[in-house]
TrEMBL record:
GO terms for cellular component: endoplasmic reticulum. It holds the Pfam family FGE-sulfatase. This is Sulfatase-modifying factor enzyme-like domain-containing protein. It comes from the Eukaryota. Residues 1-18 form the signal peptide. Keywords: Signal. Gene3D superfamilies: paralog of FGE (formylglycine-generating enzyme). One of its GO terms (molecular function) is formylglycine-generating oxidase activity. PANTHER family: FORMYLGLYCINE-GENERATING ENZYME, SULFATASE MODIFYING FACTOR 1, 2. It comes from Clytia hemisphaerica. Residues 288-307 are annotated as: Disordered.
Length: 359
């Protein structure tokens, strides 16, 4: 399986705009050789130890339900002059949504482990034999073996054996490292769709995700309002310090945090912005219809899928995308250490009991 050069380019675009494709064909072949990539449908890691987690090591992911039709202004006309217009954040457009439910939390490692145990599901990162991690988070042993990087964003490196269970490669383990309550990462859009389907759910549309993020507030930057730190408190997990060298973790977390760490809005949703990026169902476009839309689902086809919310790697200077209207994209087979998801579900209004007495 060839490393997806588009993924590399898109990851780099989180922070900068590289002028050239980052890896040569020879680089890719060298990585494939190092990783001993196997064919599609197989995994390199079939002989992993049994997972030994317990149900109380991660929170139950209850859903928040919107039982009525709702309307809101999606995107922004940028009253604060901060929108990244090239991402298609603007203009604001009127959207109506039918009743739906959305996960309270990002999907955790514990939930994903349940899925893997029940189905023997193999993620795309396992099939590829590697996934992208920020080099700062690797052990010296793993880091010393890495010879590739992304042009213009050298902190991204393809790490052999990095996948959901081993977020920083072979010597990390979400089970042993007590991270079952952290968001699952190294999951592609295709993997996320498979998980949600197994749960009887689906990915949220971008419009559903953004409505949920806004918490009923109109055109605010964050789920709680416009002030980044109300009363001096952090409400999200992003990057503090000078990126990428310095990570002062004033919010308490250098990398991911537990999925139930930051309650962010009046709807009761956690980590909509920050912690990990979240896949949505939609194909990416920057061209939005100007007429009011009912249940918009984005274009019928495209190259990349929309992701929302920013991640623990975002800082204001490099990736000011931890805002509800902000958006970015990756190809559907992409995976990295800062990209996860949550699921949604259409809410079917229960039929009322027949209370007629004249029968
Ligand atoms: Ca942080
Ligand atoms: Ca998030």
């Amino acid at each position: 399986m060839v490393i997806n050069t588009l993924l590399i380019l898109v990851l780099a675009l989180d922070f900068v705009s590289p002028q050239t494709l980052p890896l040569t064909k020879e680089d890719v072949e060298a990585i494939e050789q190092d990783s001993k990539v196997v064919g599609s449908g197989e995994t390199l890691f079939a002989k992993e130890e049994e997972l030994t987690f317990t149900k109380d090591s991660y929170p139950s992911n209850d859903m928040i339900t919107f039982k009525d039709v709702v309307h809101f202004m999606m995107g922004t006309d940028d009253p604060n002059n901060v929108a990244i217009t090239g991402d298609g954040e603007t203009p604001a457009h009127f959207v109506g949504l039918e009743p739906f439910s959305i996960d309270k939390f990002e999907v955790s490692n514990g939930e994903f482990a349940e899925f893997v145990q029940a189905t023997n599901f193999v993620t795309e990162a396992e099939k590829f034999g590697n996934s992208f991690v920020m080099e700062n988070f690797l052990s010296k042993e793993v880091s010393d073996k890495i010879t590739q990087a992304v042009a213009g964003a050298k902190w991204w490196v393809p790490v052999p054996r990095a996948y959901w269970r081993r977020p920083e490669g072979g010597d990390s383990d979400v089970n042993k490292d007590h991270r079952m309550n952290h968001p699952v990462v190294h999951v592609s859009w295709n993997d996320a769709v498979a998980f949600c389907h197994w749960k009887g759910k689906r990915l949220p549309t971008e419009a559903e995700w953004e409505y949920a993020c806004r918490g009923g507030k109109q055109d605010r930057l964050y789920p709680w309002g416009n002030k980044f730190q109300p009363k001096g408190e952090f409400r999200l997990n992003i990057w503090q310090g000078k990126f990428p060298k310095e990570n002062t973790k004033e919010d308490g977390f250098a990398s991911t945090c537990p999925v139930d760490q930051f309650k962010q809005n009046s709807f009761g949703l956690y980590n909509m912005v920050g912690n990990v990026w979240e896949w949505t169902a939609d194909w990416f476009t920057t061209a939005h219809p100007t007429k009011p839309q009912k249940n918009p689902k984005g274009p019928s086809h495209g190259k990349d899928k929309v992701k929302k919310g920013g991640s623990f790697m975002c800082s204001k200077k490099f990736c000011y995308r931890y805002r509800c209207s902000a958006r970015d994209k990756n190809s559907a087979d992409s995976s990295s250490s800062n990209l996860g998801f949550r699921c949604a579900k259409t809410y079917n209004i229960p039929l009322k009991e027949n209370t007629r007495t004249d029968l």
